[in-house]
Write a structure and sequence with these properties.
Strand order of the largest sheet: 1-10-12-11-13-16-14-15
Shape: elongated
Number of helices: 12
Radius of gyration: 25 Å
Oligomer: single chain
CATH class of the largest domain: Alpha Beta
Largest sheet: 8 strands, mixed
Length: 461
């Protein structure tokens, strides 16, 4: 008799738990559907992106355009009538590429041919007379070592290792090729090279060179570094096969100026129950200077601000405070992310999770996460609620460049994952313009982040 009562009690409790769980899932699904519907039927975020790209334009850190973008973002948040808007001051580098770069091949076999190039970020210039020398093509740093100083001294090194087109994840392909752009100049300079040309980091064969940050190794001579468009990289390689004595002339006009002050921009909705605990979301408003910084990362900034608008328009009153951070200086020295981490640490703030969108405004596929196993499992459970919206994946080990410093203070990091197939068509090039952003795809990302923040607010992480 007693065993029967115990069994019935356990069964009753199981039914209650299951019903409660099903009720919660149903309620969450309803709220998430409302978030997606509100995002997909509104133009505000997309129109804001258009203004940022077309009225302000390219926003390299330290430039007047970057300063204008900071003021505009601050005003945009203030006009939303949210609880708190403020800035975090920081110093940034100021580098300018100057007048358009020039590059010409000279061959006794083929004649002359201009190449489409751009200086790599924070490269020195060639000086007014330019540089002129024979070219040596290499695939990697091991090739430099094999050639040695005797063969390289006085030459210009051409790094021609493509991104691996066989990899499905183009960010993985980018990671396998980016070392030649980032540190190729210093590696070549160790052997006496006077300049480097780097194949642009894109899977496309086109006429658009892609810039990006490079770094000089302390104690190594600084030499000019440029990227060449992939179409001309192919041509250059073909010419070299028939004419190993081929020469190239390069002229760039890069200049460095004293550092200037800039800011991160912060907007917050105060939590009703835990106002001193924050769920953070953000993107970076600085961009490179060749396009309009639409995919990288105007989209991420506008999606983050859209999270606040969605909560307000739907009357969702969060228990925890929601903080939007519009970061400065992701592309050059990542000082915006470091500054925010330092202030979080100084104020001993409790950040439940930090979320970043910096993969372009393409179709969302899921989330990446850098956190404990317990938090990873929780996100994997929640992803079921996103399956109706095309999101299935949870990748482990990464959140985003701007939020990465927060790992030092044990804050869970989450990144919005998008389809990466077209991202490197545009990144760091003149092709990164507003017209390449699809409004619906962008707003699917806005909704995904808002829905995730809703779940974190309800259940913690």
């Amino acid at each position: 008799m007693m065993n029967s009562i115990i069994k019935k009690t356990i069964l009753f409790l199981i039914i209650i738990v299951l019903n409660t769980s099903l009720f919660s899932q149903t309620t969450d699904s309803i709220v998430i559907k409302k978030i997606y519907s509100a995002a997909l039927t509104n133009d505000i975020a997309y129109n804001n992106l258009e203004y940022l790209c077309k009225k302000i334009g390219a926003r390299i850190a330290g430039s007047p355009q970057a300063a204008a973008a900071v003021e505009w973002a601050k005003q945009l948040l203030q006009n939303m009538d949210i609880d708190n808007v403020y800035t975090e001051e920081l110093w940034v580098h100021r580098w300018d590429r100057g007048e358009k770069e020039y590059c010409k091949l000279v061959s006794p076999l083929f004649g002359t041919q201009e190449l489409t190039i751009c200086a790599l970020g924070e490269s020195i210039g060639t000086g007014p007379t330019g540089i002129n020398a024979e070219i040596i093509e290499v695939k990697n740093f091991d090739d430099l070592k094999k050639l040695g100083k005797k063969k390289i001294k006085g030459k210009i090194i051409f790094f021609n290792r493509p991104m691996d087109a066989t990899l499905f994840n183009t960010f993985e392909a980018y990671g396998g090729a980016v070392d030649q752009r980032f540190s190729g100049a210093s590696e070549a300079a160790k052997y006496g090279a006077i300049g480097v040309i780097v194949r642009s980091l894109t899977t496309n064969i086109d006429e658009f060179p892609h810039t990006g940050i490079m770094r000089y190794t302390e104690g190594t001579p600084k030499i000019p570094a440029v990227a060449v468009c992939t179409k001309d990289a192919e041509l250059l390689s073909q010419w070299l096969q028939s004419d190993p004595k081929l020469k190239v002339y390069i002229k760039t006009n890069c200049q460095f100026y004293p550092e200037v002050k800039s800011c991160n921009v912060i907007g917050e909705i105060k939590g009703s129950k835990y106002p001193d605990e924050f769920i953070m979301v953000g993107g970076h408003i600085d961009s490179w200077d060749l396009g309009e910084g639409a995919q990288d990362d105007g989209v991420g900034c506008m999606q983050s601000i859209e999270v606040l608008r969605l909560f307000k328009s739907l009357g969702i009153k969060p228990k925890h405070s929601i903080r939007v951070v519009i970061f400065m200086d992701e592309e050059i020295a990542q000082r915006g992310g470091q500054k925010h981490k330092d202030l979080v640490e100084l104020k001993n703030e409790k950040i439940i999770a930090a979320i970043e969108s910096d993969g372009g405004g393409f179709i969302p596929t899921g989330f990446s996460i850098d956190a404990s196993e317990e938090k990873i499992l929780k996100l994997k459970e929640w992803i079921k609620l996103f399956e109706n919206y095309g999101m299935h994946q949870v990748d482990v080990g990464w959140g985003g460049v701007d939020i990465d410093p927060l790992k030092e203070v044990n804050i869970p990091l989450i990144g919005l994952e998008t389809s990466s197939q077209r991202y490197f068509d545009y990144q760091h090039s003149a092709k990164d313009t507003f017209d390449k952003v699809n409004k619906r795809e962008m707003q699917l990302g806005s909704a995904a982040m808002a829905a995730l923040i809703y779940l974190i607010d309800q259940y913690g992480l």
